[in-house]
Each structure stands twice: as structure tokens, then as C-alpha cells.
């Protein structure tokens, strides 16, 4: 007879089996692996052979989901003689099946050859339904050598297998719910992507993708643009020429609620006052010679959208008053007309001038300045974000390659040289430099020796070079930028007091642009020094830089460079 200890150990096996099975089913969402491990537990702990799990498919046909002793693929291919008829009966009736000897049951004839029973060994077949709260979804079947056991043993094994089937049913139900939710989410994602593609195709909106830069300075610009774009506030873009103000203006429009409406741009510096008035406000037929038909102005064309006024600091004092009325009241009359036209236009202005200085000397109206300077965004010059130069250079080179069918690349040494250049023309000058160099490069790689500044023939260096002090006719010397005397403006401030940096001393870098050449300044007294001619012109014009610039044939930006170059303090009269 078996000892009491052995009987106690045997009675604990079903409880240990349930514990192990619950751990397996709760540890993974891989249903195939979980069911296979459950059958292995039944085989190792309880000596149950040829375990199998069948689940109903969409046509309610039982399909093998897990087996022991062979691969699932081989079992489905026919290597396992499984009694599908018995399983189908259990699933349809939801009633367990217990056959003490499979040799006595016609439904189990197909699986009689699967067992390896010893002589006089009785093999029992158990099949219990796998049921959820809604319906029966499958069946769990095992074979076990009973060795003449009583009915009580059959009932004990049946209860145990029913508990296992219940755990399996919960796992299968959870697995199917997860799959259904995943498919629903994937379908929703596909519909959303399709909808976004349709919207993008119907109205492409260009945003900050066109503005290249990863530096901290540009990250600050991106943050300000994203914050200000959705509002209706007037935006004033500040920065030197060539820093990409038009691209940022397009980004502001593209990220605003007016993105589907027109984006109209006007360069105020390229037009005279009368032409600019006609361009912005339009004119009536016969308003002036050549006005043979009525014409809408840019304000009307931009109604509901955005109007970008570039070089706003160059407009005359007379036109400033006309522009102020449109900004204040949102209405105007066409040239030669009397009918008042109302418009809803979001204004984006840009300038490289020091408007505060213009307000101080009276060349720019203070009331217009306050209307424009609602949300100022300062675009840093390229020399203050040299880390973006390799990225920009590579971007322009890719454009060149696409346009010309080439496959040029930059060497690391060439990019290092570009990073040390001054680039007073900023991003626009860098683009020209890349295109010029790529055009003249014969191989597939641009090396440092391919750059013109390495041979002292850089066109920008020739245009902007300084002569070495005390050496008449000396060769151009590269100079580093000076740090601004005050920081760039932050959102909400109305003033940018930092002067445009001016080169001051020699560098070890290759020759690159530095500052305006003194010989560009005209004058009748050619015997006078450049500084003396400049002071004389400023005194004649009452120290108004714009007037002095016109007298000397320069731009206000060039006159500003020249004043700083010679350390001439502007007098306030």
C-alpha cells in the first residue's frame, strides 16, 4: 500500500497544476505559446497524454489551436488523428465527454492509433468545453491511463479539466478582444491617414519644414512662430538681409487659420511711392495715365488671408500715413476712387532697418511703428548660428543635385571652412556660395580647395573687404564678427537695440566677407578721406542717415556699416 505522505503529495498535484497554469496564462499575450505550455503542464504534472485544444473558427468548425508531442503545423497537416467529431459534439452541446476506454467508443476510432498504451492498460478520453459567459468557443481534450480506477477518479479529473478550460476560455476571450481593439485602432489610423492625405492634397499647407536650422537661436524662432501664428496679431520680422524672413512669413501664414486663404507678398523697397500705392490699394479706371481698367490692389487680393510687406522700413513718410489707416480701420479707397473698401487681412511685415532709430530721427512714424511692432520676431544672422551652416550647405547642395542631375557631396574639411566664414549676406549668400562652388567642381566631392575663398578670389570678400590699417593698397583681410552690444529681442518686447555687428580684427580662418568697402562711397571731393567725406555728408543732411545715404549713392544699411567702421557717433540735433 502507498504511504500517507505519497497520498497527500498526489492530492496536491491538481492544486499545483492550477497554480502553474494560471501563471502561464497571465504572463503573455502569445496565445499559441500559452496553450502549448498549458498542455505541457497537464502532461508533466498529471500524466495526461495527447492533450489538445480546439477552437471554433468563423464557420463554427473546430480547428486545432495547440497540441503536445508534435508541431501544430504537422498536426493540422494530418499527422495527428484527432477525433474532431467528438470535439464538435462537446462544443455544440457544451456537455463534457468522459470515455473510460477509447477502444469502446466509435467516435474515437480515429485516435486509437495515437496512444502508446501498454498491454491491459485502459486509456480514458476526457473532453471538456471551453466556455465564456456568452457561448462555447472550443474544447480541451486529454487522454490518461486510468488503470481500472473508479468513477470517483473520473469525476475528480473532470472537475480539474473543467477549471483549466475555464482559465483557457478567459485567456482566449481577452486575446480576441485585444486583437479586435488592435484591428479597430489600425483601421482608425488608416482612415485618419487617408483623411489627412486628402486634406493635404486638397490644400497643401507649408509650415516650418521649409526653414532649416537646429540651433538654439532657430529653435527660439520656431517656438515664437508656432505660438504667434494661430493668432490674428500683426507680426514684425526683424533681422539682416538674407536671414530668411520671407520663409518665416510663409510659415506663419501656413500655421495660421488663414492657411487656405491667399498669401500675398510685396517688396516695398522695389517700388516708388505712387506705384506702391497702386499696388497695395488698387486703382480705378482713368485714375492716371495708363490706368485703362479697374484693378484690385494687394490688400483686396489678400482679403481673408495674409499680406507680407517686405522692407517695410523703406516706405516714404507720406505713404506711412496711408498705410496706418488701413492697419487701424481695415479700410481704404483705391487710387482715383471714392468708395471705401473694407478688408480682413493679417499683416506680416519685415525689415532689416533699425526702426527705433527711424522713430527717433523722425524718418519713421511712431504710431505706425507701434501698429507694426505687435509681435516682433528676430531672425538671427548666420554668424550667430554657425552650427546650422553644414546643415544649410548640405540642403542647398541637395537642391543643386536635384536641379542638375549630379551627386555632389561636401568633405568634412570643406564644411569646416564654411563654418568659419563670416557671410554678411547670411543664408542667401551661403546658398549662392554653394551653387557657385558646386557648378565649378569637376569631381563628385567638394573639398576645401574647391572653395573660392581658399584662393583669395571670393567675390563677397572682394566686395566687402577691409584694407589693413596703415597699408595703402594692401590685400583684403578676413575679420571676425563683433558680438552684439545687447541681446536679441524676446517676444513681447518692442525694441531691438543691438547694432549690426562689424568686423574688427584678423582671423586664422579663410578670407570671408567682413564689412562694406570704403571705396563704394561716392563724393565730389576725391582728395578727402572716406571718414571725412562721410562726416561731411552727415553734416549736410542734418545727421539723417537715410538722406546721407541717398547723397552718397548708398543704402541705409551700408551707411550704417560705414559709420560703425569709422567709429562716427551719430549726433542728435
From TrEMBL:
SUPFAM superfamilies the record matches: GAF domain-like (SSF55781), Homeodomain-like (SSF46689), P-loop containing nucleoside triphosphate hydrolases (SSF52540)
Gene Ontology biological process: nitrogen fixation; phosphorelay signal transduction system
SMART domains tied to this protein: AAA, GAF
Region feature (Disordered): 468-529
Protease as UniProt keyword: no
InterPro entries the record matches: AAA+_ATPase, AAA_lid_NorR, GAF, GAF-like_dom_sf, Homeodomain-like_sf, HTH_Fis, Nif-specific_regulatory_prot, P-loop_NTPase
GO MF terms, alphabetically ordered: ATP binding; DNA-binding transcription factor activity; sequence-specific DNA binding
Subunit structure: Interacts with sigma-54.
Name of the featured protein: Nif-specific regulatory protein
Native species: Magnetospirillum molischianum DSM 120
Gene that this polypeptide is encoded by: nifA
